[in-house]
Design a protein that fits this description.
This protein has three domains: 2-41; 61-103; 120-317, 2-Layer Sandwich (Nucleotidyltransferase, domain 5), CATH 3.30.420. With 318 residues, the chain is an alpha/beta fold. The chain is elongated and about 90 Å long. Helices cover 47% and strands 10% of the residues. Helix 1 packs across helix 3 and helix 2 (15-21) crosses helix 3 (29-41). The longest helix is centred in the middle third of the chain and has 19 residues, at 119-137. It has a five-stranded mixed beta sheet with strand order 3-2-1-4-5.
Length: 318
């Protein structure tokens, strides 16, 4: 096979041309390209090294059939399949197990976290969502809902070890790499900063950035609405016709907070009207917070730095 490739290289043919002109070999373009590079690097004297002689025992019909059976069993019982465990069961490496699954036309899908819901919560979600849709669509006021939520950002942490890699020369053993490069610091009691935000389909309404160590309680929450900035911006966007959405936190549903809303003529969706366990229904939970976390929490910031960063980008980021 390599003699054919050598002859094609002598005629200055590319890997794509070689693969298309010799379909009987079943070559892949990348594999041919690697051989071409080795031939050119050795001035045409490239000779492949002697193989170990170990028989290819992984890709056998028996193992293929056994993996088909195991995969069918897992699919029928909705059980996740582990390459490591699969390889241990069959006496092959997890790399070989992955290649066999790929040969069988299968691909892996990463699982994601989702909100756990009981049957009662699912029923309440359906009932309350239908009522809210009927309530707002009847008068075409879905865009007048102002979604609000708060989020705590960690200012200093080591990052995510599953996403960060250090690439070194393949001939350097791991023990010779500086340990500081391989260590991800774990900060005990990292500094945190809380942010409260209000957002609607018509644009950003208000963002409140708390001082370091400050947390949201009933008094602090009510000060946000006593301040003229939230109400002025909400009136500008919605011509005074807006309704506030908030989750069921104690400071949101306290009697003093509800009394303040009535005094300031702020309409709100009551906790008994909003579907339970529903972070997927607010744009802050499923979009804005993750975007801000990606932008500012993957690196260490001092409280003043993060506060300044957020203030400078308040309108732009929202």
């Amino acid at each position: 096979d390599r003699a054919v490739i050598k002859e094609c290289v002598r005629r200055n043919e590319t890997a794509t041309v070689i693969v298309s002109s010799h379909p009987e070999f079943g070559w892949g373009r990348q594999g041919v390209q690697r051989i071409i590079e080795k031939i050119k690097a050795s001035d045409g004297d490239y000779t492949p090294g002697k193989s170990s002689g170990r028989p290819k025992t992984a890709m056998t019909e028996e193992i293929l059939e056994e993996i088909r059976r195991i995969h069918a069993h897992h699919e029928a019982n909705r059980i996740p399949l582990s390459l490591r465990i699969l390889g241990m069961q069959l006496g092959i490496s997890k790399t070989s197990a992955g290649r066999i699954l790929k040969k069988l036309g299968l691909k892996p899908l990463r699982k994601v976290y989702g909100q756990h819901l009981t049957r009662t919560q699912k029923r309440k979600r359906r009932e309350r969502c239908r009522k809210l849709l009927h309530r707002f669509r009847a008068r075409g006021s879905e865009e007048d809902i102002i979604f609000s939520d708060e989020k705590i950002f960690t200012l200093s942490h080591g990052g995510f070890k599953q996403l960060e890699r250090i690439y070194v020369d393949k001939n350097i053993p791991k023990r010779d790499v500086d340990p500081e490069r391989l260590t991800m610091p774990r900060v005990q009691n990292p500094k945190k900063l809380m942010v409260w935000c209000a957002f609607s389909a018509k644009g950003p309404v208000h963002m409140e950035i708390f001082d370091e160590g400050e947390r949201l309680n009933g008094e602090r929450y009510r000060r946000i609405f006593i301040d003229w900035r939230f109400r002025q911006r909400a009136r500008q966007l919605h011509n005074g016709r807006y309704i506030l959405q908030q989750d069921g936190a104690t400071c949101h549903t306290a009697n003093a907070t509800r009394a303040l809303f009535r005094e300031l003529n702020i309409k709100f969706i009551d906790k008994d009207e909003w579907p339970p366990k529903s972070p997927d229904l607010t744009p802050l939970d499923y979009r804005l917070w993750s975007w801000m976390l990606h932008r500012i929490s993957n690196a260490s910031h001092s409280p003043s730095t993060l506060k300044g960063f957020t203030l400078r980008r308040r309108k732009r980021s929202l």
